[in-house]
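Fold this complex.
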Amino acid sequence: MEAVDLLQVLDQKQPRRLRVIENLLRGRRTVSTLYWGQRYHLLPLLDADKHLDRRALTAPAQQLVANGLVTLDSEEDQLLLTSSGQQRQSAAYYQPQTSDDWLNLDLGAARQRILLAVQVTSQYAHSTNRYYPLATDLATRRVIRPWFHRMKGPQLAEMLAAAMIHSLQQLPVQTAEVMTDLLTGYEHPGLTIDQVASEQQQTAWEIQLRQRDGMTQIARDARQSDHPLHSLLQPLWRSPVTRSAQATLYAVERGGSLEHVAVQRHVKANTVKEHLLEAAILSPMAVFPYDQILPEHVRADFASALNGDIDSWQFAQLPEALRTRYDFFYFRLYAIWRGRGMTNDGVTDN
Amino acid sequence: MMESLTTSLQRVFGFDTFRTGQEAALTALEQGQDTLAILPTGAGKTLIYQLYGYRHPGCVLVISPLLSLMNDQVDRMRVTGFRRSAAINSLTSYVERQEILRHLGDYQFLFLSPEMLAQPQMLAQVQQLQLSLLVIDEAHCIVQWGPDFRPEYLLLGAIRSKLQQPLTLMLTATAGKTTRHEITKQLRTTPAIVAESVNRPNIFLDVENVADEPGKQVRLKSLVSQLQQPGVVYFSSKQQATDTALWLHQETGLKAAAYHAGLDSEDRFKIQQQFMAGQLDVICATSAFGMGIDKNNVRYVIHYHLPADLESYAQEIGRAGRDGKPSVAILLYAPGDEQLPLALGQSNRPDEETIQRYYAHPQQFSGDDPVIQLLAFYRQHGISQAAVTQMFTGRERERNRALAQMMAYARETHCLRERWLAAFDEQSPEHTVACCSPGNTPLNLNAVGLTRQQPMVTATTEREDWVARLQRLF
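Structure:
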């Protein structure tokens, strides 16, 4: 991420923590990272740059500060856009089209499968069988091989080309250009992200956002059972909630108290709470049993003490009576519930 | 009776004749002799063990140094038709490793890193295999790397004994007397030696003195703008390779790309394939580039930094002119350039005091430090403090000697080829103007016939739209 990329994920009113953004990109799934990721509306970027070095965003942040686009608090963590920073968040920067689905798709696997399927089909279409395959992991090679043997035939190349074109046509032209340049096939080694970035005069990060859009759109279209990549991509749709958190949620829904579920699942009580918070953050609103875990009277208790900007709420500043009655878990869950636009009178406030 | 080597060659590869050195090495192996084959880059060293593996039952175990290139090697094996090939190294995922281990006995070719083979569990598994041949690829690494970097190389001799001294093929492109001696000593064998001259008469040698770093950049830009393409520029630093590729592209419009071990596998694949397909004019690389890259029309190799020894230098310039056509190897030298290889050599070497303190109180040291890891390795393998001290002293002496030899080449005023070949105990042909131009003689590109004839056509061809480009893939 360069300074210009970092600028895009900042806000003029909401101070955003650099560490949270960094941990989000690196895929550190702590409750705190997920919660603030949601508050910043940046959750789709979870896991988007697994190999990012620690503190790799510090230099871009300092550059933004030096250019007067951002202010940084004394602890060098909270970033806030200045008004010139706001103006620089240009309309020309790429706005992803499919980010709603990023959390629900194993994008890394989808990317490998699509790239290798295209290469294999392209070489097959040109009747070559001696070529260097893209370096992919074992899991990818293992699904591509049977897929190819089942699908190969006179129509495969044409079908795949038509399907790819159909998907990419739904995205901005430049995204379709980028996607095409990144593909590998017959007499076409494909360009690297950096090469495409330099050709398109965009940052490498922007090219990656475009590639995420391209891959997601193809996976969306491959939900149709007659799509040539259906069997490769359909299994990659999944809930972003980890399996263990799902199991905890399921056990709680069946009526166990949190303590009981902890014993039953052989985990600490605190882990049960972390699982539930993770599920609350990453599941659709309707799926999470708020009425069971955070009943109306609890919400009313918190509502009496908390108002204003959710981001400024602090557990330590709650009245002592409340802090004795409820631990941090309920406080955080209430913030998630409110943060997702819910109020006790049923009126959504955002 | 077994079919003749030539019949096998014809059957497997469709060639009628061997390249120089291949047949001699195979003949020695067929007679059951361990063999050290010193064959120039591009001579087709891989074919030797491929053909041996084809002719004999069991597994060919290849010990290969470069982790990032091992998977490329396996891919190349598969492309050539040897599908029962696999590689395990520290980059192999757990799942994949388990999968390969489950079918270990089925592989005809198995590539392992020395570190992997040194693990007791792995060694136990390999001991169960029927090995037809043990191959030590890039065998000069035993000497270049062993003592102060990847010390597992030094265990190869012991490992070979544990594997019941299988028939062994040692492969390298360059090895002078000292290196040969060291390789065979480490591996505890007295092999047949198949050596071809390291001389490459079609590569014109040039050393250019520049005043300083900015002067070097100016000269580099001027050279790559004039020279016939494609070419490779070698650097000692990944960052500088990356930066220079970008700079050259911006300054000259040439298609330049960086290649080093820090790239992810997809980028490495793409850059390599682009270069093979003739889509790049120049690659800015570190030493990670080259081993195993089969491109025969590289016209120039420029060294931006001074290599640490003539063997590395010979290995790298050997990538030029494999097609036998005129090519050039240029070393850019600025006063003080020897400091970099000197510093790189020192960085991983513990001084006497550290060795002493470590052996006295090993538990007081943090295992994060690579130097301490190195000492821990030796201590765990029962090597005494005195022996370790002596080894590092000897190693430093050897490094200094190798660097001095490299420097003598850079400072040579009469004949570079003579200086180079002397280091490999070879006689040089009589010096002529077509041989080389040392630092005191300006390079005349026209006379060498390597000036680009036409200026780069920079006419912007209209690019097809993406739909047409995508359709052309299928």
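The two ends of chain B are 48 Å apart (CA to CA).
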